[in-house]
Amino acid sequence: MAVIEVDDVDLIDKDLVGPVVRSGPLAEAIIDAVADDNPGRDVLVVDRGDYVRVHTARTCRLTRESLRRHLGAGFELAALEIEMPSFKGRLRTRVDEYVWSYDK
Fold it and tell me: What letter does residue 50 receive in the DSSP assignment?
């Protein structure tokens, strides 16, 4: 599918989930990694200047492998929590992947 920049995800779909991260190179790498890790899903991005919302419908997966590939350096997912002031959905963390899911 595609990476789509939108003005407000709340107007599009209430089932969207994923991280909210500080703007910068890490956010750009997360967008690309989420696109890789969620084949067949649109990745919706809301850029608010200081932070970026990165969401997919119902489930959003981010793997350490794809994030490292896009950052060009080693990165532990636990370090993401410093740059992720918020997220939408229920978050399940593992050493090698984070998965956000929609839970009514």
Answer: S
Number of residues assigned to the chain: 104
Separation between Cα atoms, residue 13 and residue 79, nearest integer Å:
29
Show the domain range for 75. Answer: 3-101
Name 60's Cβ contacts closer than 8 Å, sequence gap at least 6: 17, 18, 19, 34, 38, 54, 89, 99, 100, 101
Give pLDDT tens digits for 26-58: 999 999 999 999 999 999 999 999 999 999 999
Q: Read off the pLDDT of residues 50-97 as tens digits, 9 standing for 90 and up.
A: 999 999 999 999 999 999 999 987 888 999 999 999 999 999 999 999
pLDDT given at position 5: 72
Q: What is the CATH number of the domain that holds 29?
A: 3.90.56.10
